[in-house]
Amino acid sequence: MVLEEDEVKNAEKPMSDAFRLQCDDAEKERIVRENLLDKWNNVAKKVSKTIFDAKVNVKLGYKNTKFWTTKDVEYPLENHDVAIQRTTSSVDEFTWISPSNVSTVAETVLCLEGDVSVRVHVEIPNQLFGSRDYLNLTYAAKRAHYACCVAYILKAVSIKGVEEISFKAGGAAEDDFLFPDLLLTGKEKGGVQISFNNCSIAKPQRFLPSIGNLRPATVFEKLKDLNECATPFYNQRVLATMMEPELRATIEKELKGKSVVVKALGLTNRFLKARGLTNVCGAICGARVLRLFRTGSITEKQEILTVLRNIFRDLATWDISDVQTLSENVVLEEEVRELFAASFPIVLLDDSGFWNVTYRLSVSDISRLKAEIVVCLPLLGDIFAFETVFINEVPHFAQFDHYARLNISSSQLQTQVRSIGLDVADDDDLIRAFMTDFQKKACKAMGERFEYMTVSRVGDHAKSWRVDKYAPALKEQSFVICFRVTKQWTNPLTVGPQAQTEEAKAFQSFWKNSTELRKFADTRICECMVWSNEASPTVPLKILNFVLQKICNMPMNSISWRSWDMAQLASDRSQFDAVSKAFASLGATLRSMKNLPLSITNVHGISPFIRATETCSPSIFAAQFGGQVVDGHRVPSTSEVPRLSPAVVVHIKLEFSGKWGQDIEAIRRLTSSFYIQIAKSLREKQKIVAVPTVDQLFIIQDGIVFKVIIVHDKILKVLESSVERLRESGATRIEGSLEGLRLAAWKKKFVTEPLLQLSLQSFSTSHLIFGTTVQIFKAWLGSKLLSGALHDLVIELIVAAAVDQKGVLAPESAWSAFVRVLRLLSSHNWLTRPLMVDVASSWTEEEVCELESNFVKMRPVLPCMVVITNVDPVGSKFTKESPSPMLLKRIIGLAKETLRVLERNIFDEHPVDVKNALLRSNFAMYDAVIEIDRKAQVRTRSAYVDKKKRAKVLPVIEFDPVDELIYTLNANFQHAALFFYNKYDSSKVGVMFKPQEAEVPSKITRCNLHKSLNEARLVLNKEEILEGIAILGEGIVSNVICSAKLSVFD
Question: Can you give the residue ranges of the Nrap protein domain (predicted)?
Answer without folding.
Answer: 119-246, 263-392, 397-551, 568-765, 769-916, 925-1040
